Backbone:
């Protein structure tokens, strides 16, 4: 048919055919997903929310429904542990990877509520229990020690809603590791609310926290709960941090 068409008409016809042929080719959608849909995000329902570098807080399950270290895949500790059960050894030492620490005799070791948690313990008190959570997010950590401490302080407020200005910070060495610490009290609003619900501040809370920087990455120790309970166990928390040693 093209032999009987004028040269300029056949040229136009050929050009259109080439354009249509190019437009018909493209990447094939991955099996099981619709074309144009974004790739699913890694994580579980408990690990959705803000990255630790944002507004989320690496201490969960107290005034909230889940761990707010989100947008991050759960980290499998590359060091492993000497006790596959996650329980202390015969000497009361709990191995959490590159480091181990002495579990206080009066504290209870609990199964971690999420894969974000390496260890979870609680301490009883008349005002209610306080909870210690140990986190690890790989060699890169979750931001600088100062940035995390600033964020944790910012999650507390005075009863009139004003920012807390009397938080205390300190730095030390434990078994050769740099340790940054903070203590802050007030109304705590650092947990995660249920979807669509505003986060309500929990009055009368206190946080003792330490960031232990190992060669494999930083470990985050956060002891949070009712003010009087945390103060009652302050010396015990201090002893726990002082007991940190490299894992066998």
Residues:
């Amino acid at each position: 048919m093209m032999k009987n068409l004028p040269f300029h008409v056949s040229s136009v016809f050929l050009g259109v055919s080439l354009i249509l042929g190019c437009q018909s080719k493209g990447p094939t959608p991955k099996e099981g997903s619709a074309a144009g849909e974004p790739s699913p995000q890694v994580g579980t329902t408990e690990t959705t929310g803000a990255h630790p570098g944002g507004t989320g807080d690496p201490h969960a399950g107290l005034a909230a429904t889940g761990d707010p270290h989100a947008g991050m895949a759960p980290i499998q500790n590359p060091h492993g542990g000497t006790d596959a059960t996650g329980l202390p050894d015969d000497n009361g030492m709990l191995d959490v990877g590159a480091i181990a620490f002495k579990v206080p005799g009066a504290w209870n070791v609990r199964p971690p509520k999420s894969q974000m948690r390496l260890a979870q313990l609680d301490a009883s008190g008349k005002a209610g229990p306080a909870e210690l959570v140990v986190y690890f997010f790989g060699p890169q950590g979750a931001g600088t020690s100062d940035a995390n401490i600033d964020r944790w302080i910012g999650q507390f407020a005075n009863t009139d809603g004003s920012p807390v200005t009397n938080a205390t910070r300190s730095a030390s060495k434990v078994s050769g590791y740099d340790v940054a610490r903070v203590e802050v009290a007030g109304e705590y609003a650092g947990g995660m609310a249920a979807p669509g619900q505003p986060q309500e501040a929990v009055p009368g809370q206190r946080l003792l926290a330490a960031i232990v920087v190992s060669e494999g990455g930083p470990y985050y120790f956060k002891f949070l709960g009712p003010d009087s309970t945390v103060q009652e166990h302050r010396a015990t928390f201090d002893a726990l941090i002082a007991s940190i040693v490299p894992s066998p």
Remarks:
- The first helix runs from residue 7 to 23.
